[in-house]
C-alpha cells in the first residue's frame, strides 16, 4: 500500500500517473542530470561525484522509465540541441516531445529564460506552455521551463507540460 501511494504521489506530481513512457535526460556536464534523477528516485538531494566516463542510469516508476545519459567528462559539445533535434527530419526522434529544463535558477547569475531561449535558437519557436490540443499537433512539441532542482521548483511544471504529449 505504501509503495502504491509512493508511486502515485511521484507520478501524479509529474502528471505521469497512468502514462507509459521512456523519458531520457541529456545534458552538459554539471547540469544537474544526476541530481534530478536522484530527486525523482529518492525524493531528496544527494551529492554524487562528477561523471568521468560515459554511462547511463536507469530506473522505472510504474510504467514510466527514466534514463539519464551522462556524457560527463567525455561530453562532445558538438552534440548540441540542433543535432538532437535532427532538423533534417532524418531521425527516429522526429516527433518526440522535448522539454528543456534550464536548471540552477537559484544562483544569482543564472541565465534568464529569454537568454536561454536566445542562445538555443528557440526564440519564437517553442510550442507554448498552455494546454495545447496534442492531437492537433503536427510538429515536435518543444518548450523551455526554468527550474531549480535544489529548491524543488519548476521541473514539475515542465513534466506536466510534457505529460500532455504522452499517452
Ligand atoms: N545551485 C544549484 N546547484 C545544483 C542544482 N542542481 C544540481 N546542482 C549541483 O550541480 C552539481 C552537478 O550536479 P549533477 O547532478 O552531478 O550534474 P550532472 O549533469 O549529472 O553532471 P555530470 O555527472 O558531470 O554529467 C552538483 O554539485 C549539484 O549539487 C540546482 O538546482 N541549483
TrEMBL record:
It is found in: Endoplasmic reticulum; Golgi apparatus. It comes from Rubus argutus (Southern blackberry). One of its GO terms (biological process) is vesicle-mediated transport. GO terms for molecular function: GTP binding; GTPase activity; metal ion binding. Transmembrane segments: none annotated. PROSITE patterns: SAR1. The lineage of its organism: Eukaryota, Viridiplantae, Streptophyta, Embryophyta, Tracheophyta. Pfam families: Arf (PF00025). Keywords: Endoplasmic reticulum, ER-Golgi transport, Golgi apparatus, GTP-binding, Magnesium, Metal-binding, Nucleotide-binding, Protein transport, Transport. This is Uncharacterized protein. Belongs to the small GTPase superfamily. SAR1 family. GTP binds at residues 27-35, 73, 103-104, 106, 149. GO terms for cellular component: endoplasmic reticulum; Golgi apparatus. The keyword Metal-binding applies. Its main location: endoplasmic reticulum. Mg(2+) binds at residues 29, 34, 51. It comes from the Eukaryota. PANTHER family: RE74312P (PTHR45684).
Amino acid at each position: 500500500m505504501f509503495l502504491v501511494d509512493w508511486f502515485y504521489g511521484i507520478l501524479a506530481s509529474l502528471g505521469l500517473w497512468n502514462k507509459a513512457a521512456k523519458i531520457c535526460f541529456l545534458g552538459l556536464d554539471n547540469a544537474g542530470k544526476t541530481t534530478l534523477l536522484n530527486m525523482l528516485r529518492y525524493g531528496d538531494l544527494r551529492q554524487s561525484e562528477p561523471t568521468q566516463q560515459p554511462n547511463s542510469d536507469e530506473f522505472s516508476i510504474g510504467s514510466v522509465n527514466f534514463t539519464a545519459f551522462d556524457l560527463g567528462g567525455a561530453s562532445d559539445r558538438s552534440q548540441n540541441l540542433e543535432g538532437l533535434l535532427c532538423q533534417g527530419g532524418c531521425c527516429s526522434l522526429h516527433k518526440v516531445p522535448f522539454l528543456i529544463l534550464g536548471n540552477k535558477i537559484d544562483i544569482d547569475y543564472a541565465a534568464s529564460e529569454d537568454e536561454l531561449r536566445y542562445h538555443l535558437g528557440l526564440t519564437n519557436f517553442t510550442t507554448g506552455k498552455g494546454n495545447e490540443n496534442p492531437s492537433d499537433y503536427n510538429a515536435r512539441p518543444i518548450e523551455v521551463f526554468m527550474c531549480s532542482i535544489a529548491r524543488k521548483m519548476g521541473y514539475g511544471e515542465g513534466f506536466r507540460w510534457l505529460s500532455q504529449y504522452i499517452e
